[in-house]
Specification:
Elements lengths: L9 H24 L7 H10 L3 H17 L6 H30 L4 H11 L10 H19 L3 H5 L1 H20 L12 H17 L9 H24 L7 H28 L5 H11 L1 H18 L7 H24 L5 H4 L6
Helix pairs in contact: 1-2, 1-3, 1-11, 1-12, 1-13, 1-14, 2-10, 3-9, 3-11, 4-5, 4-6, 8-9, 9-11, 10-11, 13-14
GO molecular function, one term: O-acetyltransferase activity
GO biological process, one term: enterobacterial common antigen biosynthetic process
InterPro entries: Acyl_transf_3_dom (IPR002656)
Length: 357
């Protein structure tokens, strides 16, 4: 059976998503440290919270590609998992050890204590704050045979998005009332909506073609995305400005609903947006390159942000804000340059992973 058509504009979507990830990490320190009454605090808050679609977006993209290429086909699971171990598990171990080693050095821990900390943090991706994503994607790959088995059920194959919404709702309610999981953010069940949104997008692309699917309705999609963003960011701001509201159960339901709606619309809106960039333009080339190396950039850029905050960040009223954004820009540029260089070596799949070319 021949290969399905390549969806080249998905690299642009990856590029947009990695910019959103870096924006979150660039502004996170300011959101937690600046007083809420600071004149620029709303800017940091809007950028930080508004970009929260990034991880769901990457999961949506991963699911889209896997369902698009493998659904309805015979698959060699041995080959599938050999590829994932080399390009996902090995980079995860490498970067977990890298960040654990730096933490041990920076905090002056005894080697034995640092080694113990590395192993205890490894299962949930806690050796650095961004590595939890690797645990989520590893769960998805591990459970992918089950996803393929479920695709054989006709009603689920016809309506993947409905199934994803139902499973997401069930897991949310079970955790809210029964499980009370502390690390729910690293559990694959927390992202079923976005995984099955990816399955839905893959289904549309197989039926209509990669250029025809999601080619219409850009106007209402843009309006819906902006409205959902305003509601989601507004609700998150309310939790910050009026925290006494947070314990109300109905607010938890509303927040979860607005979150799911905003993140889902962001995935579809950005998918449409990625289709519209003019091929060969400077912006197209930049986003395409960022997308190509996004996996390595994701793994490396927090290290440069860490160094920047430790050695370069100042507290002056003007210099502070200038250096925050300069640090974010420098972290992505340095990571991009290094990952491009590493990608030309045989070590690339083991260090900078899937997206490196």
């Amino acid at each position: 059976m021949g290969k399905r058509e390549r969806i080249t504009y998905l690299e642009l979507l990856r590029g947009i998503l990695i910019i959103a990830v870096v924006a979150i990490h660039t502004t996170s320190f300011s959101v937690t440290k600046l007083p809420t009454g600071s004149s620029l605090y709303p800017l940091y808050y809007i950028v930080n919270v508004g970009c929260n679609f990034a991880v769901p977006g990457f999961l949506f993209l991963s699911a889209l590609l896997l369902f698009y290429h493998y659904d309805g086909r015979q698959l060699s699971w041995l080959s599938f998992y050999k590829k994932r171990i080399k390009k996902v598990v090995v980079p995860y171990l490498f970067w977990s050890l890298f960040y654990a080693a730096y933490y041990t050095y920076d905090h002056g821990l005894p080697l034995e204590q640092g080694w113990h900390r590395f192993w205890s943090n490894l299962p949930l991706g806690n050796n650095y704050e961004h590595l939890y994503f690797m645990i989520i994607i590893a769960q998805f790959y591990l459970l992918f045979p089950l996803f393929m088995l479920l695709q054989k059920i006709p009603v689920l194959k016809r309506h993947p998005l409905v199934f994803g919404i139902a499973v997401q709702l069930a897991i949310y309610l079970l955790n809210y009332y029964v499980w009370h999981m502390d690390e729910i953010g690293t559990f694959i069940g927390s992202y079923m909506l976005y995984l099955y949104l990816g399955a839905y997008a893959a289904k549309k692309m197989r039926e209509k073609g990669v250029r025809q699917a999601f080619g219409s309705g850009a106007g209402w999609m843009s309006a819906a995305f902006i409205a959902a963003a305003a509601v989601y960011i507004g609700q998150k701001w309310l939790q910050t400005a009026a925290p006494h509201w947070v314990p109300q159960p109905y607010l938890s339901y509303m927040n979860k609903l607005s979150e799911g709606l905003y993140f889902s619309l962001a995935c579809l809106f950005l998918l449409q947006l990625a289709r519209k960039f003019r091929q060969g333009s400077p912006l197209y080339k930049t986003l395409f390159s960022l997308g190509t190396y996004s996996y390595g950039i994701y793994l490396l850029h927090p290290f440069f942000l860490l160094l920047w905050r430790e050695y370069m960040q100042q507290t002056g009223p003007f210099s502070y804000h200038l250096l925050v954004w300069a640090g974010g820009a420098l972290s992505i540029l340095l990571s991009w340059t290094i990952v491009k260089a590493v990608s030309r070596t045989p070590l690339a799949p083991y260090i900078v992973g899937e997206s490196a070319k």
